[in-house]
Amino acid sequence: MFKPVILCVDDEKAILDSMYLQLKSYLSEECIIELAESAEEAIEIIESLKEQNQKLAVIISDQMLPGMPGDELLIQVHQKEPESKKILITGIGGTDVLAKVVNQAQLFRYLTKPWDKVDLQMTVDSALKSYLQNVQIHNYTHTLEALLYASKKIAKQTTLNNVSHTILSVLIQELEVDKVSIVVFEDESILYEQTTTKEQEYFVPSPKPYQIPEKFYFPPNSIPQLQQYNWENPEYMQQIRPKSYYYMPLFEKEKLSCLVYLEATNQKNYFISERLHFLELLANEIILSIEKAKLIYTLEKKVQQRTTELVEKNKEIEAKNQAIMESIQYAQRLQFSFMQPEENFQLYFPNSFILYRP
User: Fold this and answer.
1) Of 274, 278, 272, which is closest to residue 54 (Cα–Cα)?
2) What is the pLDDT of residues 304-315, one digit of tens each?
3) Neighbour count for residue 161 (Cβ, 10 Å)
4) 112: helix, coil or strand?
5) Burial of 118 (0-12, 13-18, 19+ CB in 10 A)
6) How would DSSP label each residue in 183-222?
7) How far is the CA of 358 from the CAs of 328, 343, 353, in angstroms?
8) What would the pLDDT profile of 47-83 be if each residue is shown by its tens digit?
C-alpha cells in the first residue's frame, strides 16, 4: 500500500525526537516519518526513497543546520521533488530568507521556534492533504491521457503480430517497466508469445518468466482458481531475480485469452495502485484487440487453407484435362495413320456431312 513520506530535518536530536512523537501521535499510520540531523543526510534519504519508488510528500527543515542551511536544502529538494510540500522552521526573523525559499522552493508555510504542537500538527496535516490531492489529480489526468493514447494506438492494429507489438510498446512506454511479455492462447494451445524490453527488442526469452498450466479452459466456477494460479517460473526467477513483477491473466467469455507479464528488474514496490489501475482500465482494450486479431488470424488461416485446397483442385483438374488432350492427340495420330485424309472424303462424298474427328 502506498504511504507518503514526511522528512523532518534538525541538527538537535532532542528537538527531532519531539517533532517525531508529536507528528506520529497525530498522523498515526497514514504515513512514514523519516528523520535527518543534517542537510546531507536528508538528501541521502531522499535519494534512497527514490530508489525504493517511495514519494516524499512533506519535508520540514530547521533553518539553522550545519553546513547547508534549511532554505538551501529546501531549494535543492524542490529541484528533485517539485511536488513535495516544504515547511521551514526558523528561530529568528529573516524576510529575505523566506522570500527566497518562497520563490525558489514554493514554500508551503514557515513555523517559528518554539512551535505550538497543535500548529505543527495542523500545518503538516494540511500540507500532506494538499500533496495527496495534487497527486490524485495528476494521476487521474495522466491516467486518462495515457489510456486514451494507448487505446487509440492499439485499436488501429489488426494483425496479431502488430497488435501484440503495440501492446508491449505501449506498456513499456506508459508504465516505464524494463520488460513486458504477452502470451496469446487459442483453445488449448499457445497461439503467439512475444517479449520486449526498453530497447524495443522483440524475442521469446529462455527461460520464460511464466509457466503455463496444462489446461487453458476452465468452467465458469473455476476461473478464480486460474486467476490465483502461480505463473512464476522458478528457473527464471532464480536466474534473473527481478525485484518487482506482475502477472495479468485476461479472460474472454470464460476462456483464458492472454497473459501479460510486466517486470521492473531493479526497482522494489514498483507496481503501486496507480499503475495497476491503469492496467485494469486498459485490460478491456487489450482483450478486444487480441480477440479481434485472433479472429482475423483465424479467417486468414481459413482463407489460406481454402486457397491451398483450390490450387490443389485446379492442379488436379489441369492434370485430367492434360490427360484428355493427350488421349485425343494420340487418337488423331492413329486416325491420320490408318484413314484417308479428310479432303478425300470430301471429294468422294461432296453432298454429305462428314465428321472427321477421333
Assistant:
1) 272
2) 889 999 999 999
3) 13
4) strand
5) exposed
6) EEEETTEEEEEEEEETT--EE--SS-SB---S--B--GGG
7) 7, 16, 16
8) 999 888 888 999 999 998 999 999 999 999 999 999 9
Residues 133, 135, 139, 140, Cα dihedral to 10°: 10
Residue pair 273/2 in contact by the 8 Å Cβ criterion = yes
pLDDT digits (tens, 9 = 90+) for 25-44: 888 677 899 999 999 999 99
To the nearest 10 degrees (0 to 180), the angle between helices 117-155 and 160-175 is: 160
Q: Distance of CA 143 to CAs 135, 177, 261, 321, Å? A: 12, 16, 20, 66
Give the C-alpha separation, 139 to 278, whole Å. Answer: 10
**Residue whose C-alpha cell is 528561530:** 91
Strands (E), 99-145: 107-112
At residue 266, the 3 state secondary structure works out as coil
The span from the CA of 186 to the CA of 348, in Å, is 77
Say whether pLDDT at 245 is over 60.
Answer: yes
Place of cell 471429294: 347
The answer to whether residues 23 and 120 touch, using CB atoms and an 8 Å cutoff, is yes
Banded pLDDT at 226 (limits 50, 70, 90): low
DSSP 92: S
